[in-house]
Amino acid sequence: MMASSYNAKEEDGHHSGPSSHGGAGAVKSKKPDNTAFKQQRLPAWQPILTAGTVLPAFFVIGLIFIPIGIGLYVTSNNIKEFEIDYTGVDVSSPCFSCAKNYSWDSTTSCTCSVNFTLEQPFESNVFMYYGLSNFYQNHRRYVKSRDDSQLNGDRSALTNPSKECEPYRTSEGQPIAPCGAIANSLFNDTLVLYHVDSNGTKISIPLAKKGIAWWTDKHVKFRNPGGNDNLTIAFQGTNKPVNWRKPVFELDPDDRDNNGFINEDFIVWMRTAALPTFRKLYRIIHKKSSSTPTLASGRYILDITYNYPVLSFDGRKRMILSTISWMGGKNPFLGIAYITVGSICFFLGVVLLIIHHKYDSRNSSADIPN
Amino acid sequence: MERHEWMRRQCRKLFARERDRGAVPTQSSEDSHIPPLKLKAKRTISVGHWPHQEEYRDVAQSYKGNIIHTTKYSLLTFIPMNLFQQFHRAANLYFLFLILLNWVPVVEAFQKEITMIPLLVVLTVIAVKDALEDYRRYLSDKKINNRIVQVYCGKQNAYIGKRWKDVQVGDFIRLSCNDVIPADILLLYSSDPHGICYIETANLDGETNLKQRQMVSGLPLQGVEFNPASFYIRIECENPNNDLGTFRGFIEHYSGARAGLDNKNLLLRSCTIRKTETVVGIVVYAGTKYALLLCDLGHETKAMMNNSGPRYKCSHLEKDLNNEILWCVLLLVMMCLITAIGHGFWLKQFKHAVFLVDEDMPPALAGFYVFWTMIIVLQVMIPISLYVSIEIVKLGQIYFIQNDLDLYNEHADCRIQCRALNITENLGQIRYLFSDKTGTLTENNMVFRRCSIYGIEYPHVENGCRLEMYEAKENEAAGCSVTVKSACRDKSLSCRSLSCNRSSLSLHTLAAESEEDGQLSNDFLPLTSAFCSRMAKEVIPDPDLVNKLSRLCAPMLLSGDVTFETTSSLELNYITDFFLALAICNTVMVSSPMQPQHLAQPQTLSKSLDGIKLIFQRFSLPLFSALSAHSPTRSRGSHGKTDDIFHSRNSYSNGPSDNEEDMRIEGGAENDTDNELMYEAVSPDEAALVHAAKAYRCTLRGRSADSVLVDLPGIGAMIVRLLHILPFDSNRKRMSVVVRHPLTGQVVVLTKGADSAIMNLLETPKGGEQAQETDSHIREQTQKHVDNYAREGLRTLCIARKVLEQEEYEVWLKGQLLAESNIDNREELLNVSAEKLETNLTLLGTTGILDRLQEDVPETIESLQRAGIKVWVLTGDKQETAVNIAYACKLIHPSDQILTVNCQSKDDCAALLEDLKLEVQCSEERISQKKTAEDHGGLSSGRKVSFILVIDGRTLNWTLEDASNCFLELSHSCKAVICCRSTPLQKSQVVRLIRDQLKVMTLAVGDGANDVSMIQVADVGIGIYGQEGMQAVMSSDFAISRFKHLCRLLLVHGHWCFSRLANMMLYFIYKNVMYVNLLFWYQFFCGFSGSVMTNSWVLILFNLFFTSVPPLIYGILDKDIPAEQLMRVSELYQAVHASEAPPPFVFWFTVLDAFYQSLVCFFVPYFAYVGSDIGELAFGSPINASALLIILLHQVIESHTLTWIHVFVLVVSAGSYFVFVLLFSVCCLTCSPHSNPVGVEMLQMSQPLFYIVCALTTVTAVMPRLLFRALHNTMHLSALMQTALREVE
User: Fold this and answer.
1) Is A2–B133 a contact, with Cβ atoms under 8 angstroms apart?
2) Maximum mean pLDDT: which of B222-236, B397-411, B670-684
3) Nearest residue, CB atoms, A54 vs list B1238, B1242, B1266
4) Which residues of A touch B1192 (CB under 8 A)?
5) Where are the compositionally biased (Polar residues) regions (chain A) (predicted)?
6) What is the mean pLDDT of chain B?
7) Contact: B1274, A359; criterion CB under 8 Å
8) Other Cβ atoms within 10 Å of B959 Cβ, number
9) Predicted structure pTM score
10) Which residue of B has its CA nearest to A168?
11) Count of CB atoms within 10 A of residue A84's CB?
12) Which residue, B227, B233, B419, B456, is the most exposed by fewest CB within 10 angstroms?
């Protein structure tokens, strides 16, 4: 409707005087351009999808997917994984008493140890995870309950955290650092692994706590409040999260550089998991030499400082040991899925082939009388 | 729409203001001979020294200036006003609602800024568009306002250049030829000696024929060189109103003389002065008044009425879409409800969970909050952006329609014009086509074919042959003639401008002229003689008639000749008057490229002509004894006449006498310019008749307001005074001129009109028995000829005359003058007066005018019928003519059975319809029986007999009133229906009946003002650029130049537009449902809390940017079947849609597919990552990526063509997504609180697992669709489609 109105105006302006009526040359042809685009004659690939044209695709997909699937399946099967639930739900479980008695308010820690046996040696680097189940780290309110500016070392955010952190924004009149529900619920069990020798001695296995967080998180995203090397001073005027025992600058008593917001356990926890059953990387057991397996088969003891209550919401805690491959952790699904889809495609290819032959002959025979 | 409203308000305000101002006390007008005006609202303008002059001057100053503002906004008001207008859209309100919802803290789903993005994008896009539009208006306003015009300046006593915007009411303005009129001015002086000025109103109504304007008469203005300084007048006229057709007021000269003013004196703004050297006028309405009215209301209202006002044409497709969107809303509400309830129950099972932030919230309340959160999260489900996309797509479609070479008419140099932007897809669903006949099926390029005078038929055999040859030649040379035609057009254009140039610049350099002349003669003239339409106008006279006519002028010495015996003088008289009527009973304007016809030369001649006239009168009176009372010596008189004629002719050749000298010069001039005369007629019939008269040397040579200059055979140029013109009126169906007969000097009424109109007005024969007999004989014969002509498909016009006695004339004149001077209901009175005059006519004869079919009309109609479109012809013509044309354009086959419904009464009509219905049913049964019998016998049945319903206007009226159902049923079983003698109202009633009762898509096509209502009522109205002005085009949705273009417009573009749009809508819904479901499935794993696994930026932009362009391209460029196939196999038009499943099924199938795809797209990554240390965003990353790939691949499967544009857009869409998320994951540290995108995508995309998951997901999701398409195309495609498609291969 706009267009028409201003056509009128343009006309009004068009006959600007005798000059525009000069001669025949002034009359411009309105003939549309004869271009392929304007005449809609652009060369086009016209995919008329019929059984005949589609069936090669199905065969090709089938032929590609099945080998990939087999490869994935084999890879997944080669990954060693060991998992142990130490929640202590059962009475027989070593951590039963800890689980039963422990709550966030407890002041003393409870420890328990779990024995387990590895049937097979773990050859390459072993990743040690803690796993939680029925823990909804992806709850909308929970996910939001953090202040990225604060974690990035912004001083003003440190003293005045974002509203999103409520109700874990301040305690005792002081801002909480790090604020929010995610930080507040930081997983704080301590896991220590011992190998029990053939002669019964407990050999502590070195667990590397560096390198478990993403490089970008550690070096870009999380930063301690700047200006002072002394974290105690840097965090002055803030309070620790309600559930925490120690302030954030004392998270790792062994390593000064692993404290504050750049504590790797903290960083790992702050990456909220996508699903309610998840695992998070806890420690890495590096392979020492090429001759000996990282974890030989045999008896092991897991010492747990039981700080994290999960029974109230029916949660479970696990410790997982796993090697990884190029495709990540152990997961037979992808291999199976690839093989299945590949086979289906192949099968459909055959079906299409039959249909193609049937209809093609029918059509061509029907065409002949025409 | 809003703009329209705004304009109206603005104008109302304006008028109110004017009215207040108009309340200036009027001067008493006792001395006036014109009754005081009863103008309710008036304005007064005075010039010179009047009492209360200052007061008036103030008033005049306070009238609006001539500056025009058509812009909607100013710099300051732009943002608030534009926003205000934009929030009238429901879609924007929806977005606004979401934003507000997001501001509620407990409900908040995303960052506040992010929810605003969609709205901001939409608002910005539209605001930029509006701003640009407004800026263009501003520029054009500025250009117009700053044009220079010559305005009289009292101080310098000269005309000085002033800008248009500075022109004020009361200013004197001087304009030259080809100037555009800057304001509404009253014509006070014209360089034309008759006080005439010609204007072209093309800027107003698109009509290019020249119109006459008359300077104010009755004032001592004429003749003198106009000097504003010595000019004292007062003008009182009505206040501005939007009626362009009327203007009332009076002018008072200082001498006390008063003159009435009417429309004839007013030069409207933005018209162009033509063929008049200089014009001076006084501004009565400046600027805003008419400027607004014309530029905006005039055009705007017209355009509004046509585009969105009363005929907002909603497409069926959009109705379906609304249904589908309702389903989407329902789906959305269901999803949100499920989530809300799920959240409630989920929350109930927890006590003291460390991840619960608001632990104490009661589950029901939490569920309620989640419901609203989900409304925000799943907002994309309702494809609001679809509406915007549809608009864009339709614009694109229109772009391609307008650029189609096959819809371009080289002959007229015009493209198709799409005036309605929102109904392109309606073109693809047309079931009924209603066509006008004249100018739509036919050229409306009238050619005189034959005539009958005095009851004697003149078959014009050679003329007929020539026309046929011409037609054959044209068909043969269709290819090459085109250029010639356009050349002809060029010529005529240049001719016109040339003539203007000369008149304005009479002493112009000769070089330029001669150059142009040379060009004309060298390039164009030889060519024009071959094919130019002017050629078609040239009539080869019938030898018989020429013979008889030559009796008038040829040497009557051969009195003993046989021809003289057979040609009675009465007949001769009839013949002369017949041609005289043809020549002057019209409103044709004459122009000659060689010299401007101001009747200047005749003026100098007039004295000598008068002398000649006297001589003629003296000797010719006896010849016209039938007319004149005193005819005592008939034979002697005629002898005397012949002698005199002979003498005068001799004197032509022998020796120049004073009088004849001039005559001969004139005669010489005649020979030179004869071929150059150009007629500009309002209707082509008139032009054809004038050309016909010219062929018999009865040439119309010039016209002024009150006289015409005609050449009479053998006599030469004569001035005929036009006493009155009673213009054509569609109710009267005739026009008349009252003239003083050039030969007899009597007052004669010459009437030309439809036979039905004329035949009823004929005089009941009086006088002698013989005369009575002749008279009735003439009448019978003529009626017979009229019927014959109609049967041949010719248009008939009857010519009649009436001789008025002086007293009779004077009596009537009084009435007429009274009517003319009446102000309040002038129109009616004039009509009454005209009817009073047009009685007791004497029939002279009748003409048959050939209106040739446009090219390819039969093919087009056949093609459309094969496409399943029922073609109806609604015409105002006679039944015989209509049927004949229907045969000619193969609407009726010779084997078809014609059912004619002509009834005399209502009851008959109903009964007849019932009878016909039974008959049709019986015969249909018979046919089906026969068919089964034949099938059993194994014979292939021959051509099916179909029925054609022919109904006349009167019967149609009764039918529409009472028996519409019966009519519908009957017409349903007929192949075609022809309604003849139908009025414009009936046409629209028929269209409305079909549209409303059968609920089908209707299309109406026509070219004239009588088709406007039909065009407006139909779902798609198509106007044809014709010879009859622009009304049809102005009210149409699409304007084409030839009927044959319909074929391509419907079969190709209609089909494409429809299938493109239908597919795009489905795709859009699919896309949204598919994407939204991904978010929904996630709710089952996040405690129904309204979490999303995607960064909210990506979530919003996914729909807004990454996947928005491909559907548009798909909607604009997709071609399911190539154009050639659609044109050749017109059955495809409907078969394609018939072969597809019904819309609801397709919709649900699509939604189901979307569900499946989203399930795959969510759960394959889910199972791939379940139990692992995958983060929330890292989990969303492969889901998003594969969703994008699936959505794009889905489009590739669904689209029928892939050009480089498609590929480009698809690649860019996918590419932009990956670039964006990668950049985002690198750069966004704290830009997106609550989510933590840093490094996620980089890490994900560096892992092979990501690609493995994406590949599996995409293939699994797309496979069923691919399989379905392949199987469907292989197994279920109709044979028709297959042949079409196979031929492509």
Assistant:
1) yes
2) B397-411
3) B1266
4) none
5) 150-162
6) 73
7) yes
8) 29
9) 0.75
10) B357
11) 15
12) B227
In angstroms, the CA B1158 to CA B1145 distance is 20
Min Cα distance A232 → chain B (Å) is: 25
Q: How do B42-47 and B148-153 pair as beta strands? A: unpaired
- Residue B723: name the closest of B804, B644, B791 by CA: B804
DSSP B373-411: HHHHHTGGGS-HHHHHHHHHHHHHHHHHHHT-GGG-BTT
Q: How far is CA A127 from the centre of its chain?
A: 16
Tokens representing B1105 are: 């940017």
Distance of CA B476 to CAs B472, B588, B671, Å?
Answer: 6, 33, 34
ipTM score for this prediction: 0.90
Q: Is B270 on the interface with A (CB under 8 A)?
A: yes
Which of the 8 DSSP states describes residue B428? G
CA distance B292 to chain A (A): 11
* Cβ–Cβ gap B306/A4 under 8 Å: yes
Q: What is the DSSP string of A225-275?
A: -SS-S-HHHHTTT-B--TT-SS-GGGS-SS-GGG-GGG-HHHHHHHS-BSS
Q: Please give the backbone phi and psi of residue B146, each rounded to the nearest 5 degrees, phi first.
A: -95, 5
Bridge partners for B702 per DSSP: B709
Q: Are B1086 and A140 in contact (CB < 8 Å)?
A: yes
Read off the tokens for B1072: 């949204």
* pLDDT tens-digit series, residues B1028-1075: 667 778 778 888 888 888 999 999 999 889 888 888 988 988 999 999
CB neighbour class for A288 (10 Å; exposed up to 12, middle 13-18, buried from 19): exposed
Give pLDDT, residue B942. Answer: 45
The verdict on whether B1019 is a catalytic residue reads: no
Residue of chain B whose Cα is closest to the Cα of A308:
B354
| Contact residues for B115 (Cβ-Cβ < 8 A; gap 6+) | B98, B99, B102, B109, B376, B1100
SS3 B162: strand
Chain B residue with Cα closest to A148? B1230
CB distance A273–B1085 less than 8 Å? Answer: no
Asked if A271's CB is within 8 angstroms of B500's CB, the reply is no
Continuous H helices in B406-477: 461-476
- Six-digit token pair at A19? 């000059």
* Cα B571 to Cα B688: distance, rounded to the nearest angstrom: 23
At residue A4, the pLDDT reads 34
Pick from B107, B301, B355 the residue to mutate for testing the A interface (most A CBs within 10 Å): B355
